[in-house]
């Protein structure tokens, strides 16, 4: 069997030095654009379930606590698989990983499209997530490792465009489909798009970066499954218990999860000595990376939990159709996507700290304003609140990616990317489970089990969930103030400063 040729990037990248303009050429740009396109499709698929939740609850006769697993299981699967990508990206070529990821994603889409019931639909979502889990770290590692420092903010801005515009397209697509067709068409429409992306990527994707042999520790994978799965399942079990659904006592999976997390961390520290940790925790020795990660976690918990709850509020409380619900979130996401390149250039020119502080503050303010939502909230208020939230978010993720990954040497870039993506997905899954659980608990306590789905009781539960999300986002503002721009990460800013001296 012929061995795939080892592709090498610039020597500076391998030794930890910054990439230069000449080392980020047409092949590298093509790889980034193909990966961004695949990520866009995957994120669109991830976000269509928000608007589809209420119709699926009616069709399958399930509760919100059960329906949220279509989103939570997706993110949980990613949080378990993404830690492996730090080593997988080093071991396999870009083209091989792209083909494998898109093949798995396409298979999952097919399973979901043909699913006869909730269980197989959930299985299809899990398979889709397994493919998506490779794409996000792959594009960020490619940029962080190969992009010149002066272009890193702009290129990370393109990543933010994907993660901002895809959530806009997803709910609108779901709204249009569900207005006239069944939920199954959400996946039938996605299937040929995924197939075309797979074929085009398999044909055109170049191999970039530096490869080296890296053994993957099976025990770490098992421990990560127990750790992340136990925590998220335990949080969800509280909500299921509140509505009388059969489930394990929540303390059992939570205890398993916490013990698994401690063992996982211990195992990674031990493996670092042999340079084969699943997640190399030495990235947290960099203060900029560590503080940025805390902000990332706080933002992800509040953001993804709230994004799941808003469609439920719009449809089950305000009585809006799936189509109108999707159209409400569209302008905010478009604005966020449009601002992302501007934010990227600003980060390159002025550094990331100021942008990050402003972004987290605006986001937290928008979440606090959701406490004003009630049974008769005007459509314009819901629209404006979502718009402000998206404006704030445009100033959060781009500087975090640029500052956190830019603070690491190239030898830790793939681990840093995998770590950021892991904590984001875990925080998003845990945040969604936690906020839905809080909504369910307080809805039930407000009106009793029989009336838990009434508009009045749901508003009572939603306000508690929104309050929790806003509080966590405010904690993120405090940590954003502690993040510092490291010297050399934004050379444009350094040159501007010298010119002004």
Quick synopsis:
By secondary structure, the protein is mostly helical. Helices cover 77% and strands 0% of the residues.
What report would you give on this structure?
The chain has 501 residues and is mostly helical. It has a single domain, classed as MFS general substrate transporter like domains (Growth Hormone, Chain: A). Helices cover 77% and strands 0% of the residues. It contains 18 helices and no strands. Helix 6 packs antiparallel against helix 7 and helix 12 runs parallel beside helix 14. The chain is globular.
Work out the number of β strands: 0
Mean pLDDT score, rounded? 78
Q: How many helices? A: 18
Termini separation: 61 Å
Tag the structure with descriptive keywords:
501 residues; mainly alpha; 77% helix; 18 helices; single chain; disordered N terminus; 0% strand; globular; Growth Hormone, Chain: A
Q: What's the topology here?
A:
Blueprint lengths: L10 H4 L11 H35 L3 H4 L1 H23 L2 H21 L3 H29 L5 H29 L4 H20 L13 H25 L8 H22 L14 H31 L4 H29 L2 H17 L9 H15 L3 H10 L6 H35 L7 H28 L8 H9 L2
Helix pairs in contact: 2-5, 2-6, 2-7, 2-8, 2-11, 4-6, 4-9, 4-16, 5-6, 5-8, 6-7, 6-16, 7-12, 7-15, 9-10, 9-16, 11-15, 11-16, 11-17, 12-14, 13-14, 13-17, 15-16, 16-17
């Amino acid at each position: 069997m012929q061995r795939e040729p080892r592709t090498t990037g610039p020597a500076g990248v391998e030794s930890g030095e910054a990439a230069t303009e000449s080392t980020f050429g047409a092949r590298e740009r093509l790889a980034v654009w193909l990966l961004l396109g695949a990520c866009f499709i995957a994120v669109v698929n991830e976000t269509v379930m928000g608007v589809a939740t209420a119709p699926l609850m009616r069709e399958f006769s399930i509760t919100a606590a059960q329906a949220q697993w279509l989103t939570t299981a997706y993110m949980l699967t990613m949080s378990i698989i993404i830690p492996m990508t730090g080593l997988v990206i080093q071991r396999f070529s870009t083209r091989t990983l792209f083909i494998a990821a898109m093949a798995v994603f396409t298979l999952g889409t097919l399973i979901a499209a043909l699913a006869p019931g909730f269980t197989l639909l959930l299985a299809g979502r899990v398979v889709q997530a397994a493919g998506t889990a490779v794409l996000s770290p792959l594009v960020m590692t490619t940029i962080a490792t190969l992009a010149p420092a002066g272009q890193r903010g702009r290129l990370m801005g393109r990543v933010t465009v994907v993660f901002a515009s895809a959530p806009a397209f997803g709910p609108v697509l779901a709204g249009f489909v569900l207005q006239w067709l069944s939920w199954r068409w959400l996946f039938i429409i996605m299937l040929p798009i995924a197939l075309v992306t797979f074929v085009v990527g398999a044909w055109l994707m170049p191999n970039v970066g530096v490869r080296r042999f890296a053994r993957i520790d099976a025990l770490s994978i098992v421990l990560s499954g127990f750790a992340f799965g136990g925590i998220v399942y335990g949080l969800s079990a509280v909500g299921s218990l509140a509505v009388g659904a059969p489930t394990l006592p929540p303390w059992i999976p939570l205890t398993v999860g916490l013990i698994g997390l401690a063992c996982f961390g211990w195992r990674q520290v031990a493996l670092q000595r042999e340079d084969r940790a699943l997640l190399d925790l030495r990235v947290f020795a960099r203060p900029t990376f560590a503080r940025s990660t805390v902000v990332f976690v706080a933002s992800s918990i509040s953001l993804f939990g709230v994004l799941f709850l808003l469609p439920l509020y719009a449809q089950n409380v305000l009585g809006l159709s799936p189509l109108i619900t999707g159209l409400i979130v569209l302008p905010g996401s478009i604005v966020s996507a449009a601002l992302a390149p501007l934010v990227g250039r600003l980060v390159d020119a002025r550094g990331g700290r100021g942008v990050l502080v402003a972004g987290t503050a605006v986001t937290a303010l928008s979440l606090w304003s959701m406490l004003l939502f009630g049974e008769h909230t005007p459509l314009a208020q819901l629209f404006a609140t979502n718009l402000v939230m998206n404006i704030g978010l445009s100033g959060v993720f781009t500087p975090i990616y640029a500052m956190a990954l830019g603070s690491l040497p190239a030898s830790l870039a793939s681990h840093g990317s995998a770590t950021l993506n892991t904590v984001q997905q875990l925080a998003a899954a845990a945040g969604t489970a936690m906020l839905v659980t809080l909504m369910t608990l307080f809805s039930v306590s407000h009106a009793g089990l029989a009336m838990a789905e009434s508009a009045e009781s749901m508003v009572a539960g939603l306000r508690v969930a929104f309050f929790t999300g806003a509080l966590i986002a405010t904690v993120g503002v405090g940590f954003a103030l502690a993040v510092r721009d490291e010297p050399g990460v934004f050379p444009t800013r350094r040159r501007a400063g010298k010119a002004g001296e």
